């Protein structure tokens, strides 16, 4: 069974040249079927139809492509869940999962998606090395593609951006009929035109930022033509196949999950038809639970949008919790009189003092607890100068600040993609603050008191014990990243598997040092000799 | 005077025993039952490195663990 990203990509990719040929010579129904399977190619389809003298057929194509999308959306969670079981083959406890339909209740019959797969996809699947997997994942791709199109369509991103756009692209499209799974909404509340326009703008921005997460993690920023956030172009200026672009998003899974942006990554994968690659990635990393949770969150929101032609208070609350709305957007919506709190019956039953977050909820970003940091383009470029430069900044090792209780409970310093700081820079910050933990906390954007909390452990991992270091999003100037990344100190993401050797840095506030206080980050040659290697028990 | 000292730490030889209400555990996450709540707990990747908790519905928990897993691992509180 070929579970590699490349293998999955090959099964779902549709070459651009085929698209041009289809649009120029195919029937309206054929083009609509292709658009249902590949909603991310809508811009290319429109361009090709216009340049090929078929602009008059565009409305009919869009209408037919939109028909039945709602039913496809309703299949997303169920189909993705089954695909996950197929990919994993085992439950979280290590035992084989029960047969599909017994472990995860199915909401709808497993009917084929409207229109069926395109001939190209069918042929690709038939010739695949893993027909069973290909069939399942391709089904996910089709419904996910359709769902991605609906996300854009219902929220109204394209319609809001281009008033007077083709029919079938508005949030009140009659084809977006009610769904049986939309019963999670108790009090529908239509938003006014200004709020809808705002959501439309967000719809265009969210997937773009999510794709960036993947691109950054893969170290391959993908340029996009101006005015077309959904398209990607390669070095030769040609549109990249959606699957290839989406695979990069899949590579960003760890980072997206780590920073609480799983829902956003799912949005990008839905749009790009990359749920198979994303699920395979999640399966390999053992992170299917979070991904499924994020998928369900999006599915519920999309289904409810389709049912009412506009987001309700619940959907807006979901979007808020999922980080789809920035603090400024939240303020704008509230100013417009749009309630953002879920009905009381749907609120999580958090007890006082408990930290309860919905999947993918970057509380800091929503509540605006941490001010955005603007970084210059030069800083961003310097931060990603390359893996060698990144590793050089961690030559003295890495510092991981972590809950002692959590380490004892799980036996690891962090999940895959954990945030770490350059050890010498952290030491430099300590010296610059003369050991004042509160000053260090402020500099690192940590909550007050964290470094004085007995539960907090500062772990030092030697360079030789560090795995691959990946750029931290905040190092790239991502002002919306929900988690602190060490202020202006060099940060990175890395994997810290069990049995990673480390030493605890026990902080002791002392008098001012007899040597000049260094600025951070310290040059490597000026690094303190405090970090003398100590034999680490293996 | 140093601002900190380094203390070698021996990685645990065996995983910690299940916590009360813990139904399933991965390398950095667990599913727990607390009262009527199903919780997905996980070690966060951010710089705080705390354990975060996410509310799950029972259906979501079952989709992760499976009916057999829940029946096997979930022991109702005594009394």
What key attributes describe this structure?
heterodimer; A: 538 residues; mainly alpha; six-stranded antiparallel sheet; elongated; disordered N terminus; disordered C terminus; B: 79 residues; alpha+beta; four-stranded antiparallel sheet; 2 helices
Which helices and strands, and how do they pair?
The complex is a heterodimer of chains A (538) and B (79).
Chain A: H1 5-12, H2 16-25, H3 28-37, H4 42-51, H5 58-66, H6 69-88, H7 119-126, H8 131-155, H9 157-161, H10 193-218, H11 242-251, H12 253-258, H13 262-272, H14 275-285, H15 288-308, H16 313-321, H17 327-335, H18 363-367, H19 377-383, H20 387-393, E1 398-403, H21 404-410, E2 418-422, H22 423-432, H23 437-443, E3 456-461, E4 469-471, E5 491-494, E6 502-507
Antiparallel strand pairs in A: 1-2, 1-3, 2-5, 3-6, 4-5
Helix pairs in contact in A: 1-11, 2-4, 3-5, 6-8, 6-14, 6-15, 8-13, 8-15, 10-11, 10-13, 11-13, 11-14, 13-15, 15-16
Chain B: E1 4-9, E2 22-25, E3 29-34, E4 37-43, E5 51-56, H1 58-65, H2 67-73
Antiparallel strand pairs in B: 2-3, 3-4, 4-5
What does this structure look like?
The complex is a heterodimer of chains A (538) and B (79). By secondary structure, chain A is mostly helical. Helices cover 47% and strands 6% of the residues of chain A. Chain A has helices at 5-12, 16-25, 28-37, 42-51, 58-66, 69-88, 119-126, 131-155, 157-161, 193-218, 242-251, 253-258, 262-272, 275-285, 288-308, 313-321, 327-335, 363-367, 377-383, 387-393, 404-410, 423-432, 437-443; strands at residues 398-403, 418-422, 456-461, 469-471, 491-494, 502-507. In chain A, helix 1 (5-12) runs antiparallel to helix 11 (242-251), helix 6 packs parallel to helix 14 and helix 6 packs antiparallel against helix 15. Chain B is of the alpha+beta class and 79 residues long. Chain B is built from 2 helices and 5 strands, in the order E-E-E-E-E-H-H. In chain B, strand 2 and strand 3 form a beta hairpin. At the A-B interface, helix 15, strand 1, helix 21, strand 2 and helix 22 of A face strand 1, strand 2, strand 3, strand 4 and strand 5 of B.
